[in-house]
Amino acid sequence: MPHHKVSKLIFLSSLLLPAILSAQVFSSDSYTVSNPSLFSGGYSSSDHFGLISTMSQMAIGTSTSNSLYQLFGGMLYFPFISTPVVGATPGNALVNLSWTAADGTNGWSAGGYEVGQSTTASGPYAFSNVGNVLSSTRTGLTNSTPYYFVIRVYDAFGTAIATSSEVSATPVAPPGGGGGGGGGGGGGGVGTIGTGSINLVGRAYPKSVITILKDAQVVSTTIADESANFSASINNLSAGNYFFSVYSEDNKGYRSSLLSFPTTIKENSTTNIRGIFVAPTLGVDKSQVKKGDNITIFGQTTTAAEVTIQVNSDQEFFTKAKADQNGVYLSNFDTDALEYGNHSTKSKATWGTEVSSFSAAVPFVVGNTTIFANTVTKAILKGDANSDGKVNLVDFSVAAYWYNRPNPPKSIDVNNDGKVNLIDFSIMAYNWTG
User: Fold this and answer.
1) pLDDT at position 7
2) Do 191 and 269 touch, CB atoms closer than 8 A?
3) Beta bridge partners of 117
4) Are 172 and 143 in contact (CB under 8 A)?
5) Closest C-alpha to 305, from 280, 322, 328, 318
6) Is the dihedral of CA 297, 299, 302, 303 positive or negative?
7) What is the pLDDT of residue 54?
8) Between 422-430 and 393-401, two packed helices, what is the crossing angle to 10 degrees?
9) CA distance 413 to 346
10) What confidence score (pLDDT) does residue 49 get?
11) What is the pLDDT of residue 104?
């Protein structure tokens, strides 16, 4: 080929091809992939097939338009979606189901949900499509017969992408209506006649304390076992709609993000909540890191979970870490690929088929010098409603419950004027620690 044509081709290639980007090292027990990179693609076709070689990786469900195209360097990153937390409340020949929305990333989003129903634990289930909703009432059931349910999430193309933990409930006849079973599954009775109860089952961090809030007020605490599993029962609840939340604190004093779910309590019945998966805690060892140095990202989650860490930048970066038997994970992230300026990182955990939501995002700066982060302290701050040394969403939720309500607790009434209003929230914002 003449030299001038080669030169033109090289010049044209430099305009059309993206810069080569290195990615993280991926490994398992049986393989290691090091420094994968982007490459140019092509297209071939015949009357019987079409073969596309991708130039890069595109998130599922996106297009190649200028506004929606997503490009990630390195090996293909698989999308994630959290598994729903499911609640089941029995009634007369029926069970009311409710669940949290599945939280997707890297291109996945919930296009709808299916309810799987069985009279046998662990199935097989008969599935029915209920659309993109967060509740369903299963009718025509037999009183005193236990039923088992799962919620299956599917994407915009109708492909199943996640399945919840199983929850059970036993339909009951009204008092005097002739028979009927008790609440299905997991510990704790209804309590006082005319009231209801709730059972909560999930996973957090090994031997961690789990705090349970009802309508932004702490109602119970429990301790996870060595495998990070926990359960709790709350009895003597008046019938009605409630907003329950849970959080946990790790072995270094870092607190998880709040996991919340609306729940209906009915008289003389027990609502079972399954699939609670508390998001990992996350911290960094530097508030500012010198470009090219490592920043250590760490936290705690359930035992032996796989943790996906996302670093937000002009380009999103992903890396994985394996939690040890204590649920502790750690990753040394090379900042050489990050531009100067503000960044943040967050993480989510996978255990079996269960996927947690993301942790709260933690900010850091890439600069010319390194500044190490402060350690967690328990200092009492104005706006710290639960005296944990932090002012964050938990305190905000507690204060929000008391907004414009009479006789708030002194720990909530920050400026001691006998009410909770915008002044209190302004003080909380000033002392915000996240």
Assistant:
1) 46
2) no
3) 126, 149
4) yes
5) 322
6) positive
7) 47
8) 170
9) 32
10) 59
11) 79
Q: How far apart are CA 322 and CA 324, in angstroms?
A: 6
* Regions of the chain where pLDDT drops below 50: 5-24, 37-42, 52-76, 177-190, 377-379
Q: What is the pLDDT of residue 183?
A: 37
Residues whose CB falls within 8 Å of the CB of residue 65, separated by 6 or more in sequence, listed in order = none
CA 283 distance to own-chain centroid: 17
Among left, alpha and beta (phi > 0; psi -120 to 50; other), residue 3 is alpha
Q: How far apart are CA 166 and CA 117, in angstroms?
A: 10
Nearest C-alpha neighbor of 100 from the set 350, 318, 355, 286 = 355
d(CA 36, CA 416): 59
Amino acid 292 reads: G
Quick check: bond before 84 cis, omega within 30?
no
Contact 256, 249 (CB under 8 A): yes
Q: What is the 3-state secondary structure (H, E, C) of the chain?
A: CCHHHHHHHHHHHHHHCCCCCCCCCEECCCCEECCCCCCCCEEEECCCCEEEECCCECCCCCCCCCCCCCCECCCCCCCEECCCCEEEEEECCEEEEEECCCCEECCCCCCEEEEEEECCCCCCCEEEEEECCCEEEECCCCCCCCEEEEEEEECCCCCEEEECCCEEECCCCCCCCCCCCCCCCCCCCCCCCCCEEEEEEEECCCCCEEEEEECCEEEEEEECCCCCEEEEEEEEECCEEEEEEEEEECCCCCECCCEEEEEEECCCCEEEEEEEECCCCCEECEEEEECCCEEEEEEECCCCCEEEEEEECCCCEEEEEECCCCCEEEEEEEHHHCCCEEEEEEEEEEECCEECCCCCCEEEEEECCCEECCCCCCCCCCCCCCCCCCCCHHHHHHHHHCECCCCCCCCCCCCCCCCECHHHHHHHHHCCCC
The rounded distance, in Å, linking the Cα atoms of 381 and 401 is 20
d(CA 147, CA 90): 10
Residues 237 and 262 sit within 8 Å (Cβ to Cβ): no
Buried b (16+ CB within 10 A) or exposed e, 310-333: bbebeeebbbbbebeebbbbebeb
Give residue 50's pLDDT. 55
Tokens, residue 322: 């394996």
Query: pTM score, two decimals?
Result: 0.69
